[in-house]
Write a structure and sequence with these properties.
The structure holds 2 protein chains of 2 kinds. By secondary structure, chain A is mainly beta. Chain A has no helices and 11 strands. The termini of chain A are far apart. Chain B is mostly beta strands. Chain B contains no helices and 11 strands. In chain B, the strands form 2 sheets. In chain B, strands 2, 4, 5, 6, 9, 10 and 11 form a 7-stranded mixed sheet that branches. Chain B has a 4-stranded antiparallel sheet with strand order 1-3-8-7, with no helix packed on it. Chain B is globular and about 35 Å long. Classes of the chains: A mainly beta, B mainly beta. The interface between A and B is medium-sized, with 26 and 27 residues.
């Protein structure tokens, strides 16, 4: 069922670093690409989302870069903090359809 | 505004039993989706309900079913439980079928022995 490939599986950065998580999709009908953050024992929380008509979207320290021709998108976390340590999931869906396809997740650790 | 609530939070069942999980969406949200999260398969879409009607269904066997009530609350049922059904079951609500901004509940951790 997985149609979104996410890498890396895990990532360790120092405080202040800029972790980058990448995702690639197959279905060109996808037109909504969210990123979720999940802490242990909690459900995923929406961080930021993008649609394919823009190449970049920034919200606070989080930026999505989108490359429609390559069918890839990535999450950058600026000035990362230990509190950002969590699992991050990319996802994709077709508009008007809540059948979200998730990547496998990236476990991010930000060391103080 | 209260978030998505799921009950129970933890559940232990044995193989062959059935289980019902409940989800109350955010007030005003009419769409409820269910997902299964496991370490091996990740997050997988089960089904979505909107206005008491199932709109979409993922690739799960018929043992997995759900329903939605007129107040948008939703339940999912798993019959004849198997060991592989052990997972975190997540419910997500949104205003409607689009623009897809889904808010997740904390999940129900189901363990099948």
């Amino acid at each position: 069922q997985q149609q979104v490939k996410q890498s890396p599986q895990s990532l360790i950065v120092q405080k202040g670093g800029i972790p980058i998580i990448n995702c690639a999709y197959e279905n060109t009908a996808f037109d909504y690409f969210p990123w979720y953050q999940q802490f242990p024992g909690k459900g995923p929380a929406l961080l930021i989302a993008i649609r394919p008509d823009v190449s970049e979207k920034k919200e606070g320290r989080f930026t999505i870069s989108f490359n429609k021709s390559a069918k890839q998108f990535s999450l950058h976390i600026m000035d990362s903090q230990p509190g950002d340590s969590a699992t991050y999931f990319c996802a994709a869906s077709i508009d008007n359809n809540n059948d979200m396809r998730f990547g496998a997740g990236t476990r991010l650790t930000v060391k103080p | 505004k209260a978030g998505v609530t799921q009950t129970p939070r933890y559940l232990i069942k044995t193989r062959g039993q059935q289980v019902t999980l409940s989800c109350s969406p955010i007030s005003g949200h009419r769409s409820v989706s269910w997902y299964q999260q496991t370490p091996g398969q990740g997050l997988q879409f089960l089904f979505e309900y909107f206005s008491e009607t199932q709109r979409n269904k993922g690739n799960f066997p018929g043992r997995f079913s759900g329903r939605q009530f007129s107040n948008s609350r939703s339940e999912m049922n798993v019959s004849t439980l198997e060991l592989g059904d052990s997972a975190l079951y997540l419910c997500a609500s949104s205003l409607g079928p689009g623009p897809n901004e889904q808010f997740f509940g904390p999940g129900t951790r189901l363990t099948v022995l």
